[in-house]
TrEMBL record:
The name this protein goes by in its record: PucR family transcriptional regulator
Superkingdom of the organism of origin: Bacteria
Gene3D superfamilies cross-referenced by the UniProt entry: PucR C-terminal helix-turn-helix domain
UniProt domain Purine catabolism PurC-like: residue ranges: 31-132
Organism whose genome encodes this protein: Cryobacterium serini
Length: 519
């Protein structure tokens, strides 16, 4: 950290004397002495603030105030400008323009809480500036030395069996800050010290929300947020569009340049470790895909034996089969998320990549894993009915049909049972039958447009009421004879006898194909 006012005043060779808030040369509050000193500048301008920056010490001989104490300028405005500029302290050189420090200046500094010290005539301003420069140089050398030692300690930690955990633990120790790693789903993976969030659930919620926001963006980025009096710094890990997680740091103080350099080296090491894990994950992914194909041809025993050695037993039958869209930019993150869920819930989930989708077999109790996956990554997914492993190909077909239906809606999970309840004819709306349906209904639709009638709507309600005129009339709010007349007119336009089941089925299919049945 940069030197503070305490160290500058402690240099006995300078002979600096600090005034307290009462204008007396007595000890000051510790908070005042802890103010940072970045540099020392001297000026006798009435308003030197355009040439100053925060955390500097200003020295002046008071020429701008005049030599006659009775005609002194308004010290209030002068000190107010310095205070608003963020000046650390003001030093007044005596025996140059006047014998002592003006009482008005002492009072103004006390009113604004600006530290004021007296510089004796024997001490040139350049000596004060040189002393401050030496302190800054010593601090920079100390921080650079610390950074080298910290990076060496972290590099040695990375060679340990659990290199990633050891690296993060060493970073936490070196910085004196807590360090947390969030996985590809935004869940807390590990934190050092371990009890960091035990008594601070709000801080965990804040940093976890921010980590998930960064991951959702899908690009390398960083951010800083405030929570619980701490400055939280977050940085994504992994390559562009292939994020592996987020590294988060928190502490009462912001990071300086040396600390930032150490953190940067850890981000590189952590990213490399996660990429190495990802290379292993790709190999496991190829193994999973092979095992899925083996499952589909009926060799459940072999797949279960291999799965037990790698990830745990396969989910117990009956299982649910899911097919999930896996867009290329998010595919690795989706896979990482599922790998973590396999570790958390052994024996409840098996998954493998198939073309541009991911096929998962889940225990019925693990249904929530799929819902969480779709919500987190905004994915479409289809889910089969419960199935044995012998019937896995059939269940896969069901899941694919459900996925096709899911893509017509907002992201989420669609179950095949919903598709089945809608019936076979509902599939007509998703085929080339639409044009045929429009051609079939064209005469009725043209009549409605030309004469402002409601033949098509009446026809739909009448078919839904299974051909009952009274029930259809009640729903439409008209007389049953009106419904009968409209249906007869529709029969003439369609050239069909709607008293027969095949004709009714054909017209209903046309309505479905044109989305008119559910309008």
């Amino acid at each position: 950290m940069l030197p503070n006012l305490r160290l500058l005043l402690a240099d006995t060779n300078l002979g600096l004397t600090l005034f307290n808030d009462s204008g007396e040369t007595a000890p000051a509050r510790p908070a005042i002495l802890d103010r940072t000193v970045e540099w020392v500048h001297s000026s006798d301008l009435a308003d030197p603030t355009p040439f100053l920056s925060a955390n500097q010490v200003l020295l002046t001989t008071g020429t701008q105030f005049g030599s006659d104490p009775a005609a002194d300028a308004d010290y209030i405005l002068y000190v107010q400008r310095l205070s608003e500029c963020g000046i650390t302290a003001l030093g007044f050189g005596t025996e140059v323009v006047r014998d002592g420090t003006p009482d008005g200046l002492i009072a103004a500094c006390g009113a604004f809480g600006l530290p004021l010290f007296e510089v004796p005539y024997r001490t040139p301003f350049i000596a004060v500036a040189r002393a401050a420069g030496d302190l800054v140089a010593e601090d920079r050398y100390a921080r650079a030395t610390w950074a080298l030692k910290a990076q060496r300690a972290i590099a040695l930690a990375a060679l340990r069996p659990d290199g990633l955990s050891a690296t993060l633990a060493e970073l936490s120790r070196q910085l004196g800050h807590w360090v947390a790693l969030f996985d590809a789903s935004g869940a807390l993976d590990r934190v050092f010290p371990h009890a960091t969030f035990a008594a601070a659930p709000d801080a965990l919620a804040t940093v976890q929300f921010e980590a998930r926001r960064l991951l959702t963006r899908g690009a390398r980025s960083s951010s800083t947020v405030e929570a619980g009096g701490e400055t939280l710094t977050l940085q994504t890990l992994g390559g562009h569009d292939h994020l592996r997680g987020v590294l988060a740091l928190g502490g009462p103080l912001a990071l300086d340049q040396a600390s930032t350099e150490v953190v940067t080296s850890v981000i590189a090491l952590a990213g490399l470790a996660l990429e190495q894990n990802n290379a292993l994950g790709r190999a496991q992914g190829l193994l999973r895909s092979g095992l899925l194909n083996t499952l589909l041809v009926g060799d459940h025993t072999l797949v279960d034996q291999i799965s037990r050695q790698m990830w745990g037993a396969l989910p117990a039958a009956p299982v649910l089969v899911a097919v999930v869209d896996a867009p290329a930019p998010r595919r690795d993150a989706i896979t990482d998320y599922l790998e973590l869920r396999v570790e958390d819930s052994p024996g409840q989930l098996f998954f493998a990549r198939q073309d541009d989708t991911i096929v998962a077999c889940v225990d019925r109790a693990a249904h929530g894993i799929l819902s969480d996956l779709c919500a987190l990554f905004e994915l479409h997914a289809g889910l089969s009915e419960p199935s044995s492993y012998r019937q896995l190909p059939r269940a896969l077909d069901q899941a694919q049909q459900a996925l096709a239906r899911a893509r017509e809606r907002a992201p989420g999970l669609t179950e095949f049972s919903l598709v089945a309840r809608q019936g076979v004819l509902a599939l007509l709306a998703r085929t080339d039958a639409r044009e045929v349906g429009l051609a079939t209904l064209a005469p009725v639709m043209a009549h409605d447009r030309a004469h402002s009638t409601e033949l098509l709507g009446t026809l739909r309600i009448w078919l839904l009421c299974n051909g009952h005129f009274s029930e259809a009339a009640a729903q439409l709010g008209v007389h049953r004879h009106t419904v009968r007349t409209r249906i007869q007119q529709a029969e003439r336009l369609l050239a069909r006898d709607l008293g027969s089941f095949p004709a009714r089925a054909d017209v209903w299919a046309a309505l479905l194909a044109t989305d008119s049945a559910t309008a």
